[in-house]
Write a structure and sequence with these properties.
Number of strands: 11
Number of domains: 2
EC number: 4.2.3.4
CATH topology of the largest domain: Dehydroquinate synthase-like, alpha domain
Distance between the termini: 47 Å
Radius of gyration: 20 Å
Oligomer: single chain
CATH class of the largest domain: Mainly Alpha
Number of helices: 14
InterPro entries: Dehydroquinate_synthase, DHQ_synth_AroB, DHQ_synth_fam, DHQS/DOIS_N, DHQS_C
GO cellular component, one term: cytoplasm
Helix content: 40-55%
Function: Catalyzes the conversion of 3-deoxy-D-arabino-heptulosonate 7-phosphate (DAHP) to dehydroquinate (DHQ).
Strand order of the largest sheet: 1-2-9-6-5-3-4
GO biological process, one term: chorismate biosynthetic process
C-alpha cells in the first residue's frame, strides 16, 4: 500500500485504498454520505468508484455541471439546498469524486455546511491528483476571479486511483502535467529535467510521477499550511496564469482554456520576469520556454488581450496594497516569493513569450 502521511490526513494510492476508505467510513458511522460529482464523472468514473466502495452507509449522489463555469456560489447554493432536502445532518460526510472543480467546490461546500462536515476527496483527473486534492484549499470563483471565496479545510482522506486517468483525453492530461512541471521548477531540478522531455516519459508508470508531485506539494504545505510564507511558491506561474484563465473564462469571444494551459503560459512569462528581477540565467529561461511551448504550443495574444489580462492581476491574492507580487525563479529548483513586479515588466514578459 502506497501512502503519503500529512499532519492532518492520509493520502492513499491504488485500488486497494478503497478498502481503507470503507473501513474508515464504517468506523465513523456517518449517518449518510453525499457523493458529489459532475455529469462527466458520473458517467465515466462513478461506476468504478461505487463498485469498489465497501460500505453499507446510505448515500445520495448530487451531480453538477462539468467545467470551471460551474465553480461558483450559485452551484454551491444548489448543492446546499439539495443537502437540506436530503436531510444531511452534521454527522454526514461529503465524498467529492471528480476533477479540480469538484474537489475545490466539494471541499468548500462541506467546510461550511452546518458549520463544517467531514469531506473525502477522490480525484479523477491528473490536475486534481497532483494539485487540487492536496493541501486543504477549497474555494469557488466570483465574477471570474479565481477562488475568490474559500477556506483552508483539510479533508479526512484522499484516495488517488490512477485508473481514472484512462477516462481523460490528452488535452486534460497535459493540463495536469503543467502542475507537475511547476513542482520541478520550484523544488526539484532533476524532476523537471525528467518531465520536460515528454516524449520520453513513461506514462505507464504515471503513478510514480504522481506520487513524487504529491510528496513535493505535501512537504511545502506541511511547513506552511495557511500560505503565510513558503506555500506561496506553489503559486509559481499562477499570478499570470489565473489572470489569463479569468480573461478567457469571462470573454465570450475566446475559446475554452484549461487551467494547466493557462499556468503553462504563466510559467513562461514569470520565468522571463525572473531573468530581470532575480537574474535567472537566460539560457535556463530559454530552456524553460522551449520545453513548455513544445508541450503546450504558443497562444497568440493581441496588445488588447495583454492589457486586459494585466487588469485581472489586481485580484490576485498575493497582492498587497495594490502591489502585484509574484513567485519568481533564481534557478530551477530555487524560487522566492513576494517579489514586486511592475505592469510594464509583465507586458514585456508577454512580448517575449510571443517571440
Amino acid at each position: 500500500m502506497i501512502k503519503v502521511e500529512t499532519a492532518d490526513y492520509p493520502i492513499y494510492f491504488g485500488v486497494e485504498s478503497y478498502a481503507i476508505l470503507g473501513d474508515f467510513l464504517n468506523e465513523k458511522q456517518y449517518s449518510k454520505l453525499l457523493i458529489l460529482t459532475d455529469s462527466t464523472c458520473n458517467e465515466l468514473c462513478l461506476p468504478h468508484f461505487l463498485a469498489n466502495l465497501p460500505t453499507t452507509i446510505p448515500f445520495e449522489i448530487i451531480e453538477i455541471e462539468p467545467g470551471e463555469t460551474a465553480k461558483d456560489l450559485a452551484t454551491c447554493e444548489g448543492v446546499w439546498s439539495a443537502m437540506l432536502d436530503l436531510e444531511l445532518d452534521r454527522h454526514s460526510a461529503v465524498i467529492a469524486v471528480g476533477g479540480g472543480v469538484v474537489s475545490d467546490l466539494g471541499g468548500f461546500v462541506a467546510s461550511v455546511y452546518m458549520r463544517g462536515i467531514d469531506c473525502f476527496l477522490v480525484p479523477t483527473t491528473l490536475l486534481a491528483m497532483v494539485d487540487a486534492s492536496i493541501g486543504g484549499k477549497t474555494g469557488v470563483d466570483v465574477q471570474g476571479v479565481k477562488n475568490a471565496i474559500g477556506t483552508f479545510t483539510m479533508p479526512q482522506m484522499v484516495v488517488i486511483d490512477a485508473t481514472y486517468l484512462e477516462t481523460l483525453d490528452p488535452r486534460e492530461l497535459k493540463s495536469g502535467y503543467a502542475e507537475m512541471l511547476k513542482h520541478g521548477l520550484i523544488y526539484d531540478e532533476a524532476y523537471f529535467n525528467h518531465l520536460k522531455n515528454i516524449a520520453q516519459v513513461d506514462f505507464g508508470d504515471i503513478e510514480t510521477l504522481i506520487y513524487h508531485s504529491v510528496v513535493i506539494k505535501n512537504q511545502v504545505v506541511q511547513e506552511d499550511p495557511q500560505e503565510i510564507g513558503l506555500r506561496k511558491i506553489l503559486n509559481f506561474g499562477h499570478t499570470i496564469g489565473h489572470a489569463v484563465e479569468s480573461y478567457y473564462l469571462t470573454n465570450p469571444t475566446k475559446n475554452r482554456m484549461l487551467h494547466g494551459e493557462a499556468i503553462a503560459i504563466g510559467m513562461v512569462v514569470e520565468a522571463y520576469i525572473s531573468t530581470v528581477i532575480l537574474g535567472l540565467n537566460n539560457t535556463t529561461y530559454q530552456e524553460i520556454k522551449e520545453s513548455i511551448q513544445y508541450i503546450y504550443g504558443k497562444q497568440l495574444f493581441t496588445q488588447t488581450d495583454i492589457a486586459e489580462i494585466v487588469e485581472w492581476l489586481k485580484f490576485d491574492k498575493k497582492n498587497r496594497a495594490g502591489e502585484i507580487r509574484m513567485v519568481l525563479l533564481a534557478n530551477i529548483g530555487q524560487c522566492f516569493y513576494n517579489k514586486e513586479v511592475s505592469k510594464d515588466l509583465i507586458v514585456k514578459g508577454f512580448e517575449d513569450y510571443l517571440k
